[in-house]
Specification:
By secondary structure, the chain is an alpha/beta fold. Helix content is 19%, strand content 23%.
């Protein structure tokens, strides 16, 4: 199977100073860490991680999840993180494992974290609230930055469109925010016939309709670690995977940094330090 890499290091025209930085081979330097040296102070720096698949048979899911916590805590120690967003597929087809992954791993993160279900979590609003204290769709505010998070699957793992009534209400509520970011495990569009996403034209229309909505973030496809676009260059970012038995040759996560001038920077971290970032089979 071919793997597709889409690391881009140039500014996006018309995208409100949103810049993609090259991938970082994290923890490859002396002292087991990379160090960001920004030109201006960040008012928000956070990580997005997804697809842990805790409990999947035949995988070292405990080690993978432990590594995730270690990598993120190291990143926080070296560079500071304000929060972590865990974007779906926390567990593998067994929602009964959600309390275990929360208490053994997530609660050991050094920074606040937020979660949203994926199709392998088999979760709805009640399951999510019982485990995390909030439902499967909600908003987060960080000053003049707003986040909209919503579920994209049902309790059987069937792909569904997010609750667009909720999405619209959240975007209306955040109309005065400088920046709004949307987090959905499964992207709301099939870009090509090989994708395993779901077409949600109403969701896409909402993302395009509000000028302060700057990007959407997704997991789900473990092979994707870059960016795709809808409409007039609206970016959808992916973050590889932490667990599971398929995907990119490395395990990693995405960093997003927002400076005092509301310029947004994002890049992918090769946390497992696997040097193979591009491979093809002929």
């Amino acid at each position: 199977m071919s793997t597709r890499r889409n690391f881009i290091g140039t500014s996006l025209a018309g995208m409100a100073a949103l810049t993609l930085l090259p991938a970082v081979n994290s923890f490859a330097n002396t002292g087991n860490g990379y160090l960001r040296e920004p030109k201006s102070k960040f008012k928000l720096r956070f990580a997005l991680v997804s697809d842990i698949h805790y409990g999947q048979p035949g995988t070292d899911f405990a080690a993978n999840t432990g590594n995730m916590v270690k990598w993120l805590n190291q990143d926080h120690d070296k560079n500071h993180l304000d929060m972590v967003i865990i974007n779906g597929d926390l567990v593998h087809n067994c929602p009964d494992l959600l309390p275990e992954i929360k208490s053994r791993y997530f609660d050991k993160l050094s920074v606040p974290y937020h979660t949203i279900p994926g199709n392998h979590d088999f979760a709805d609003a009640s399951v999510w609230k019982n485990n995390f204290g909030y439902e499967d769709k909600y908003t987060v505010e960080f000053g003049d930055i707003g986040f909209v998070l919503a579920n994209t699957a049902d309790t059987k793992g069937t792909y569904i469109c997010p609750d667009n009534v909720f999405i619209k209400a959240a975007l209306d509520k955040f109309a005065d925010k400088k920046i709004v970011l949307v987090v959905l495990h499964i992207p709301p569009i099939n870009w090509n016939k090989n994708d395993v996403f779901v077409d949600c034209p109403e969701t896409i229309d909402l993302l395009h309709r509000y000028p302060n909505v700057k990007a959407a973030f997704h997991g789900h496809d473990h092979l994707l670690d870059g960016v795709r676009y809808t409409g007039n260059k609206f970016p959808h970012f992916f973050d590889s995977h932490i667990g599971g038995n398929w995907g990119t040759n490395y395990k990693g996560y995405r960093i997003v940094e927002i400076d005092e001038q509301n310029a947004i920077y994002t890049y992918q971290v090769n946390a497992s330090q696997n040097p193979v970032l591009n491979s093809n089979k002929f």
